[in-house]
Task: inverse folding
């Protein structure tokens, strides 16, 4: 039988290895389960996602810092954005920003 401690995963995001997404954008893959993936992206000022992201399943993100511009809308820190299955977007930032995202791990998409 699993103990409560084995059912909980906690990390400090600064301890997670970064990977380059595109010039000015770095990501971190946060602990995941069979159902949900989580990730964090840092956008440097003037950066933009390398291509349009098309979704076969829902995806959402919370703007933690700065401002993200996505599909022509400006999302300041504190904004929660939800993309339904079938949606597309290409985020970027003029001033820089950080987002925490959640996606469906069953959809086969990689954050």
Result:
């Amino acid at each position: 039988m699993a103990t409560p401690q084995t059912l909980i995963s906690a990390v400090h995001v600064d301890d997670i290895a970064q990977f380059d997404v595109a010039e000015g954008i770095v990501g971190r893959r946060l602990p995941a389960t069979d159902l949900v993936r989580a990730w964090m992206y840092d956008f440097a000022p003037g950066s933009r996602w390398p291509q349009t992201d098309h979704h076969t399943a829902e995806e959402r993100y919370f703007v933690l810092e700065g401002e993200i511009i996505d599909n022509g809308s400006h999302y300041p820190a504190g904004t929660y954005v939800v993309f339904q299955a079938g949606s597309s977007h290409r985020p970027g930032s003029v001033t820089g920003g950080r987002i925490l995202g959640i996606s469906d791990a069953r959809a086969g998409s990689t954050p």
About this structure: The two ends are 32 Å apart (CA to CA). The first strand starts at residue 19 and ends at 22.
